[in-house]
Specification:
Elements lengths: L1 E4 L4 E5 L3 H4 L8 E3 L25 E11 L7 E6 L6 E5 L2 E6 L6 E4 L8 E11 L15 E6 L2 E15 L3 E12 L5 E10 L5 E11 L4 E11 L12 E9 H9 L11 E8 L4 E4 L3 E4 L2 E2 L2 E6 L12 H13 L4 E4 L6 H10 L2 E5 L17 H16 L5 E8 L7 H17 L4 E7 H4 L4 H8 L11 H4 L1 H9 L2 H6 L1 H5 L4 E4 L4 H8 L5 E6 L4 H10 L3 E6 L48 H9 L7 E5 L18 E2 L11 E7 L4 E6 L2 E7 L4 E7 L4 E8 L2 E9 L6 E6 L3 E3 L6 E8 L12 E8 L1 E7 L13 E3 L4 E8 L3 E9 L2 E11 L1
Parallel strand pairs: 21-22, 21-28, 22-23, 23-24, 24-25, 25-26, 26-27, 27-28, 38-45
Antiparallel strand pairs: 1-10, 2-3, 2-4, 4-9, 5-8, 5-10, 6-7, 6-9, 11-12, 12-15, 13-14, 13-16, 16-17, 18-19, 19-20, 29-30, 29-31, 31-34, 32-33, 32-35, 35-36, 37-39, 39-43, 40-42, 40-44, 41-43, 44-45
Length: 824
């Protein structure tokens, strides 16, 4: 079917009260560009819920008027929604068309029967959200919309599937299956052509075959292609092929042959679909682990939520690609979308950049986690939503695993195992080429049995790692619980029905299960970032453990403050999960919401063996001597800065990450001594003085690398740098402009934070503006925002070909300007 962007021309408003509107008082619509996050229009307040970043819920209406030509009579017309959060209701010309409760499911509305041909038509979409998730969801038409049109006989939407049957460096067998559907009342015979192009755009195979379709039925057409010397898709070389499928009505061609003078362009009906795919093989066993094209791969994984920081949940293609680019640059080779299906835009980006994907279905099944979550709809809708996810993912070579859930409480019960088998079986029936996992949390799986576990406490040893530690240290408690006989027994069936046992915070089972379940293949589907050194060693030495996914790779909105620094108070408090208003983000992740890498990211890169240069970070001097009391998701309260005005000669702790035997710390060239590197890190207590702070690592007495931080000096300068000098006017492109406060030499000045004001003219608008402060009342849709640790980020959306001019000003700093070209 012909696919046309349907993103333009929408209007939006909070849903009005029909009875109130009878009095003439109505809430006006305003124009918006889709993708659009309705929740960002709301005002946060302390009366909100920390899970949703203190944004209130709401009900929202979108409408659009579009013209349908009279000559489109007989055409099938759909509107496709890549995601509406949530409880979407779709109406055309006032008539109900369809609905979709799940906010992450791609679905289509068959609007054709409700349209007036040769006239304007109104489509209206309602969306509502309220206490339905454990994170910030956004609301409304937050993903792309499409208009699909096709004739009475056409290639079905998502009707082209490409499968690698077998492949090696010399030869590949590729199967292309096309589903042709007909609304005709008579038998139809057409010609179907498939052209395959290699990554360089050369046609490497083509085939034409007749296909006859029964009236009102579907006809699957399968063709096999045998390719010599294929370019295999893999993380290091993500080679992408394309398949173009053309469906021609041969009646028109016969008319042209018999009487060319009377033939017209409309005599031949043509329907074209194009998909990209990769040729690659997957294999899995408990000794050699995961192999792609026969080569072993360990998953260096990042769990991520779907929001795009200052854009909220709005899913622009460039925003998704930028996240993939930055995560890969930080050392990750895999992403687990948490805890719902990934956007098509991010899947395409993962394909292009060779980043592997674990795509996930649900965060809950029949047992709810929030007051009004998807558990209310699961039993009725799960099957359709699983079908939608697999149909979306099938041609993406980056997808290697489907996850049927995350921390599902039912997984420790026989009933939960029944549900798990249903979901796994459904996915395998739709796509037998990938593997199935489930992110199982041991504590949640046996929650109903914890009373029985408590009775065993007095029988357990009181030493380190005992069950008693669950009360004193939740992380240690989860570890002890994960290895208990109770968990082993209760989760056995739920793990057995999977191809890969997904374990959240249960690395203590890795060695144990090698003995108890020698055929069990394990993936750490979620883990504490503070334990990556220990965890990665387990992944590295165990063949049956195929990788680890940290919580989290990228900071996110909602679940506020789970990773924030906390310190023990006089009353002994600390380690609290949810932070009070105005906290905005989880404050957890290797990368903050603007895309800036935090110290934990560099440590991880060293642990992975991807970085040999050391890295130095400084704990905030104002907290020196305090006892940390944060959760296990929190990294140390460090900043990569040696600029601490007001703390001259104050004691502070310096952390050094590196590879080698030992590290030396130098302050302005003076040695502060050497310390052994243990678990890739060490620390020094020194007194702050302006100048240079240098860490040097050694192996066998030989220097292996050094990293230096310099003090920033006055005056402060404002700098602006765009990620690209030119962007496209269409296709979800964006320009990212990093604004920073530095000295004359370009050294960042994290202690000079101040408001920055934007003025944007030309062919673009501000789509989002933010610092990365985890607790702020400033809005993303404002023209002014305060820097955080010397940085802010402006996101610009092009509105048409031409140029975008951004001028930024910050107090006594000289204004700066950025010019970006927008191409057609």
């Amino acid at each position: 079917m012909k696919r046309t962007s349907f993103n333009d021309g929408w209007e939006f408003r909070p849903k009005g009260d029909q009875f109130t509107e009878l009095t003439g008082r109505s809430t006006p619509y305003r124009p918006v560009s889709v993708p659009h996050d309705a929740m960002l229009t709301e005002q946060r307040s302390a009366s909100g819920d920390g899970a949703g970043a203190y944004f209130p819920g709401g009900v929202y209406e979108y409408r659009k008027v579009f013209h349908v030509p009279a000559e489109d009579e007989g055409q099938r017309i759909f509107v496709e929604f890549e995601g509406v959060h949530r409880d979407a209701m779709v109406y055309v010309n006032g008539a109900y068309v369809t609905q979709r409760p799940y906010g992450y499911a791609q679905f289509r509305a068959d609007v054709g029967p409700f349209l007036r041909r040769g006239a304007d038509n109104e489509i209206r979409v309602e969306a509502r959200t309220h206490q339905d998730s454990r994170w910030y969801t956004g609301a409304g038409l937050y993903r792309d919309t499409w208009l699909l049109t096709g004739g009475p006989v056409r290639v079905a939407p998502e009707g082209v599937r490409v499968t690698t049957v077998e492949a090696d460096r010399d030869r590949a067998v590729v199967e292309v299956t096309v589903e042709v559907e007909s609304d005709e009342h008579a038998l139809r015979t057409l010609e179907l052509t498939v052209d395959l192009k290699d990554p360089d755009g050369r046609v490497v195979a083509t085939r034409t075959t007749p296909v006859t379709v029964d009236p009102g039925r579907k006809a699957p057409v399968r063709q096999r292609f045998y390719l010599q010397n294929p370019a295999l898709w893999g993380p290091d070389r993500p080679a992408l092929y394309s398949a173009t499928v053309t469906l021609d009505d041969d009646r028109g061609e016969r008319d042209i042959e018999l009487d060319p003078e009377r033939a017209t362009e409309r005599d031949t009906e043509r329907d074209t679909e194009r998909v990209t795919f990769g040729i690659r093989t997957l294999s899995l066993d408990p000794e050699r682990g995961l192999r792609i094209n026969g080569m072993p791969v360990k998953l260096r994984g990042a769990c991520v939520h779907h929001d795009n920081g200052p854009l909220g949940a709005a899913t622009y293609a460039r925003a998704e690609e930028r996240r993939v680019e930055l995560l890969k640059a930080a050392g990750f080779n895999a992403i687990r979308m948490s805890h719902h299906p990934m956007s098509s835009a991010m899947l395409r980006a993962c394909d292009r950049h060779g980043v592997l994907v674990v795509d996930e279905t649900f965060d809950m099944w029949t047992s709810g986690k929030s007051a009004f979550d998807y558990s209310l709809y699961f039993a009725e809708w799960w099957e359709r939503d699983v079908e939608a996810m697999v149909a979306k993912d099938y041609n993406h070579p980056s997808v290697i695993l489907y996850s049927i859930g995350n921390e599902i409480p039912e997984t420790g019960s026989p009933a939960g195992a029944v549900w798990g088998r249903r979901l796994a079986g459904k996915i395998r029936s739709l796509d037998p080429t990938r593997y199935v996992t489930n992110g199982i949390n041991s504590a949640l799986a046996v929650m109903a049995d914890l009373a029985a576990l408590r009775e065993q406490v007095n029988e357990q040893p009181q030493g380190e790692g005992g069950i008693n530690s669950f009360m004193a240290d939740p992380a240690a408690g989860m570890e002890a619980l994960a290895t208990s006989d109770l968990v082993t027994r209760k989760t056995a069936e739920s793990f057995a029905l999977l191809d890969v046992a997904g374990m959240n915070y249960a690395e203590a089972r890795y060695d144990l299960d090698r003995k108890l379940f020698p055929d069990r293949i394990i993936l750490g589907t979620e883990s504490f970032p503070t334990r990556i050194d220990r965890i990665w060693n387990l992944v590295r030495v165990h063949g049956h453990v195929i990788g680890d996914f940290t919580w989290t790779g990228w900071d996110y909105l909602g679940e506020v403050g789970i990773g924030r620094p906390q310190y023990r108070t006089e009353g002994g408090a600390g380690g609290e999960f949810v932070a009070p208003y105005p906290h905005l983000t989880a404050d957890c992740g290797d990368i903050d919401i603007t895309g800036h890498r935090r110290p934990a990211s560099y440590y991880r890169e060293i642990v992975y063996g991807l970085r040999t240069t050391p890295y130095v970070a400084v704990r905030r001097p104002e907290h020196h001597g305090k006892t940390p009391a944060a959760t296990s998701w929190a990294w140390s309260d460090t900043v990569a800065s040696w600029t601490w005005p007001g703390h001259e000669n104050a004691p502070t702790t310096v952390e050094v990450y590196g590879v080698g035997d030992e590290a030396e710390l130098l302050v302005n060239g003076r040695s502060c001594g050497t310390r052994p590197l243990e678990s890739f890190r060490t620390e020094f207590d020194v007194r702050y003085e302006k100048g240079a702070l240098t860490a040097v690592t050694y192996t066998g007495g030989v220097e292996t690398g050094r990293h230096t931080l310099h003090t920033a000096h006055a005056p402060v300068h404002l700098r602006a740098e765009a990620d690209r000098s030119a962007v496209a006017a269409t296709g979800g492109d964006l320009a990212y402009v990093t604004l920073s406060l530095t000295d004359a030499d370009g050294t960042l000045h994290p202690a000079a934070d101040r408001p920055i004001r934007l003025d944007v003219t030309g062919n673009g608008v501000v789509a989002g503006f933010a610092g990365a402060h985890p607790a702020t009342e400033e809005r993303f849709d404002a023209d002014e925002h305060t820097t955080y640790e010397g940085r802010a980020l402006a996101v610009l959306r092009p509105t048409g070909p031409g140029e975008i001019h951004l001028t930024a000003s910050a107090g006594d700093c000289a204004p700066v300007m950025v010019r970006i070209t927008v191409t057609a």
